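Contributing new records

If you add data, match the layout below exactly. Sequence lines come first and carry their own label; structure lines follow with theirs. Keep one chain per record. Anything else will be rejected by the validation script.
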Amino acid sequence: MLSAGEVSGDLHGARIARAILSQAPETVLVGFGGAEMEDAGVRLIENFASYNVMGVWEVLKNLPRIWKLLNKLTDAMREERPDLLVLIDYPDFNWRLAKRAKALGIPVFSYIPPSAWAWRKGRAKACAQLAEEFVAIFPHELPVYEAAGAKISFVGNPLVDTVKAEIPERVAREKFAFPEGSHGILLLPGSRKQEIEMLLPDMLQAARRLLVERPKTKFYLPVAPGVDERTLRAKIDAAGVPVMLTHEARYALMGLMDAAMATSGTVVMEAALMGLPCVVLYRFAPLNYMIGKALVHIENFSLPNILLGEQFETELLQDAVTPEAITRELLPLYRGEEHRAWVSRKLDEACKRLGPPGASGRVAEKILAAARRHSSSNGDET
C-alpha cells in the first residue's frame, strides 16, 4: 500500500509504482495518491486532490475531513492486509497512518522521510520507532536519522532520470517562438493556491520592471497540474505583462531560458538539472511564518544551496520578496553575464550530489525486499 498526499509525492509514487511493477509484475498496488499514481498502476482508495492543503489555519479548517480520510485508509489496511505500507513524503498525515499500520501489525517503509535535519529533530527518533526502513532522496538527510538508530540509505534522486528535455532544442525554439539570441525569464509560482496568491503578483510586477531594463525579454509560465489557468490568466491580464502560459515540454523550455523567478521547492532542483539559475522565493501567511521562524533553524531553503552548504542562488524570504529585489537579482542572471556563468558552474556541482541515474529502480528493489520479508497471508499484495 502506497500513501502520497500531494503533487510531488504523487509523481514520486508513480515512479516507484512503475519500477515495482517492472521488477515484480504480479504485485498489487493500492493506495492514496493522485492521477499520476493511478496511471502508473496504483488502485486508488482515495484521490489526494481535494485534501491538498497547507498552513496551520487551512489544516485546522479541514481537520474533520482529514480524520475521516485517515479512518478510511485505516479500514482499507484492515481489509486489504498489505504486506507493506510505503509512506511517500506528506509527513504529518502519513505518520499518523503509520501508527495505525503498526497497531495492525503492518510494517512501514518510509520514502522521503520528514525533514528532521531542518526542524523538529526529535521526529527522527519517533519515526525510527514506527518504520523499519527509510530511503532519503538527499544525502544531507541521513545523519539525523542514523543518530536516531534508523535504518536509512540514500540511493540517488529520481529527478536525475526524469528531468530531461522532452523535445529537441530546435523544436522547442519553434514551439515557444523563441529564436536564437532571445532572452527569456520563467515564472514558477508553485502549484498551491496559497503560493500563487502570495508570490505571483510580485513576480508579475518584477516582470514589468525587467521589461524596462531589458525590453526584449520574453516571459513564460508553465501551468502546473491542477492549477486553475483562469486564475493565472486573470492575474497576468491585471498586471498588463505579456506572459505565455505553457502546458508541455517544460524541461525543454527551462533549457532555453536565461533564468527563473521560482517558488522554493522541487521545481528549483528541476531547474538546476536543466542548467537554469533561479531567484528563489517564499512567503508564508503571517501566523505560519511566526511558527516556522521559531521552529526551523536552517541557513538556506533552496535545495541547490542546501546541497552545497552555501548560498550561491539568491533566496528571498517573506518581506524580502519584492518586485524591486527580484528584478535586481535577476538582471545578473541573463545569458552573457559573468555572474550567470558562475552560478551555472555551482548548479552543476550541486546536481552531482544527487547521485547516479536509476534511483527509482533501486528504491523499488528495497521496497520489494521489505515486502517479501514480511509477506503475509494476503499473498502478493503490496
